[in-house]
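W.,

You were right to be curious about this one. When I first looked at the sequence I had no strong expectations either way, so I just let the prediction run and decided to look at it fresh. Below is the sequence, 338 residues in total, followed by the output.
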Amino acid sequence: VLDSSTPEVQDANAKRIISSWESVRHWRFDPATGLTEKLYEGIMSLDTTYCSFCADDDVIIIPALSACLEYLRAHPDYTTAQGYYFSFYLTEEDSRCNVQIPSLLYFTPSLEAPSPDARLVEFISRYQPIFYGTHRTAELKQCYRSVRDVKGFLFEEFLPACELVIAGKIARIPLLYYGRNVGNDFADLKNPRNFTGHPVHWFIEDPETLFSAFVKYREVMIRALQQKMENPPSEKQLRKGLNLLHMGYLAHGIDPEIAYSWAKDIFSDKFRSPEAEFYTATVSSPNSITVNYEAEGGSERSYIFSGSFLRHTRVGTDEEPIVLPEDARNLLTHLAHY
């Protein structure tokens, strides 16, 4: 247990651990210790063949963890195995705590391309974190050795994950594996602790440090690719390729309408978006759903749930969709209100 809570909470945790589990090591950290530094120290102290993490507000499904361990034992060319992640949050009603489970959160397929660069392109182009997967400890340690060379939580998360992908294949086992609490305040973009955790937020607030940090991160990535690729391109080409990959990731997180709205809030209070007064949803084709509405003044807007988006929300074959057409139509019908 890597514990950087307040001294009072650390004491309570220590008593619970001593009374419940003989094999658990309780490692106290100063509450001011950064998350990445704490993880680095914990990872480097491990002496087991495999390892996995669970945040203090999340849940891990033990049978799925066991399945991931068995998969890694049977497949030496994989560095990480994980299942499907779901999101949850807590609500209170009539003095009773309810657990809401709204959706699957991480579900992209396994990364099984034979070349490290192909796996990296696939990983970043539809990025979903792999930190809470089950890892080979030796590979994870190697990937974390360079994490101190980068700055910003975004790159501190990206670097070891990308290096794991470069080092070996990543398995997605078809089991519910891990629950992530989406109600925590660290996920809030307005939380100053997460200032460098989201590229759009970081870009809006301080683009100078974002790009200077990216340059340092990119150089570490180049070294990792050069070590693993059989015939790596020139450093100039590697830089260009990494620029393009991460530009796509940044663009994926930007909603132009939201950006314009925030800008309007800063520059003037005279802007007002019309409220939707009438909207309909229709299935345009087997792989496309369109929501139309007529707003105040007679303007119209269409939301198109395209086939490419549908493919990213499916697991396995087309007969196993995560998001059903009816669910998608309901989702976009709600979006028409905004």
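Here's what jumped out at me. Residues 186 and 194 are 6 Å apart (CA to CA). And, maybe more interesting for your project: The longest helix spans residues 207-228.

Coffee later to discuss?

I.
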